[in-house]
Amino acid sequence: MKKVNLGSTKNPIVLKNKHQDIESEKYYARHKNGEMYIHRPLLQTHTINNHELDNDDPESGLFAFHKLRDDQDCFTKNVISNPHLQPLEVKILLALNEFFQEHCSYEMVYICSSNIINLNNFGDDEGFWVAEGNTESLVEVNEVPLYKLLGKALNTNISNEKLNKILIRLDSFHYISVTPVTFENSKRGISQKHDQNQRAYLKIIQINELMDSKNLTDIWLVKD
Length: 224
Hints:
Layout: E1 13-14, H1 23-31, H2 41-45, E2 51-52, E3 62-63, H3 75-80, H4 87-102, E4 107-111, E5 128-132, E6 135-139, E7 141-142, H5 146-154, H6 160-172, E8 176-180, E9 202-207, H7 210-213
Parallel strand pairs: 1-5, 4-7
Antiparallel strand pairs: 2-3, 4-9, 5-6, 8-9
């Protein structure tokens, strides 16, 4: 039987849910394919006056973007105003945002490994496919490892291991959404039991558009 690649049209990667801000969207995120709504712990821990009671999770509540004031092109302000980010994290966020602007996109598949990766083992002849809700679409794949791209852009050395740890933190602040490219996160594998320690050589990184249209500059808690 012919191998079915991750990211092919027969087995697209199901994107990790981005932050829903409408109750119907939150309900859908909790109940589609048995998934639970994904909280962003660091975003909720380090902000104030922005939470709403969640009947499914009354202890933590939900971050409410819709309670914030509308703004334009405020991604940079929302990054540099956050006292809980390290300087390198700030630089990486700004560089990632610039990458996406150059490609006129909010998402891209990046190589997040120092190993040599054969991209022919992912996607299909048409490209790399992702699924979000009932929609499937093609996403661009960047063939240069992300740690090398950022190292060149920032004129610094950053190991792949350190970068992956930083990506986890930035996802928890929800500046970005990171979906590992694993069978666990594929359309065929998402409803099955699997090894939770699958290694992801590729990751789909998305910029959270709400971080560019909602102003968070006044809601960060002061750093201790």
